[in-house]
Amino acid sequence: MPRDFTLGELQKVYEIIIGKKIDHKSFRRRILGVDILEDTERTRQDGKKPAKLYQLKEIHKTHFFMRNIEAATEFS
Length: 76
Fold this sequence. Notes:
Layout: H1 7-18, E1 20-22, H2 24-33, E2 37-45, E3 50-56, E4 71-74
Antiparallel strand pairs: 1-4, 2-3
């Protein structure tokens, strides 16, 4: 994973690890809610519109979700 990444890129990594597709809105809400990412205030063209770039905060704790982020569908 590069130092700066979009939420879409982070979601793809997470989906590969768990082997399931994840609902986009659910992933975004849960990841931004745990306060481990820092907005770099830069963007990258990622699809139709620019996507914000994030990085891990310098000082962050390991976070364990109380329950899994909901999967949209399973990989084939």
